[in-house]
Amino acid sequence: MKIPIVDKNDDVIEYRERNDQDANAIYRVSSLWIRNSKGEILLARRAFSKSHDPGKWGPAVAGTVEEGETYESNIIKEAEEELGLTNIQLVSGARLRKRTNYNYFVQQFSIVLDKKNI
Q1: Residue 91 — φ and ψ, nearest 5°?
Q2: What positions does the domain Nudix hydrolase occupy (predicted)?
Q3: Which of 34, 57, 70, 73 has the fewest CB atoms within 10 Å, i.e. the most exposed one?
Q4: Among 49, 53, 6, residue whose Cα is nearest residue 31
Q5: Is residue 13 classed as helix, strand or coil in its secondary structure?
Q6: Distance CA 21, CA 5 (A)
Q7: Can you tell me the distance from the alpha carbon of 43 to that of 113, in angstroms, rounded to the nearest whole number?
Q8: Among residues 21, 105, 23, 34, which one has the least CA distance to residue 64?
C-alpha cells in the first residue's frame, strides 16, 4: 500500500510504500471522535502489537490515508471497516501536525451518535 508523503504545508510531494519511510517523511492520518448526546466519548485502545503507540487510548477510529484517498474518504472507509458505520455525517475539526517518533498531519473528525441511531 502506498501512502502520500507531504511537505510542511500538507501538499503531496510523492507516494511511498507504507513501510518505506524515513524519520523526516510526513504522512497523513484521519481520526474520528464519537460522542453521544450525553457527551460521553467512545475511545478505542490500540492493539499491543502495533508499532506506533501500542496500548494507547485514543479516538474511536483512526487510519493512515492511502494513495487516492482524502482525509474524509479515508475516515469514512475506516469507520465502516472498524465499527460498521455507514452514512455518517462528519463534522470536520482541526488538522494538526504531530511530531513525536512519527511525523504526520492528523485531520480530526467527529460525529454525535446515539445507540438508537445505529
Answers
A1: -110, 120
A2: 25-118
A3: 57
A4: 53
A5: strand
A6: 9
A7: 13
A8: 105
Beta bridge partners of 47: none
What percent of the residues of the chain are helix, what percent strand, and what percent coil, each to the nearest 5? 15, 40, 45
Q: Are strands 103-112 and 27-35 parallel, antiparallel or unpaired?
A: parallel
Half-sphere exposure of 111 (CA within 13 A, CB side): 19
* 2-117 classified as CATH 3.90.79.10: yes
pLDDT digits (tens, 9 = 90+) for 43-66: 999 999 988 889 999 999 999 999
What Cα–Cα distance (Å) separates residue 22 from each residue in 18, 19, 52, 99, 101?
10, 9, 14, 13, 11
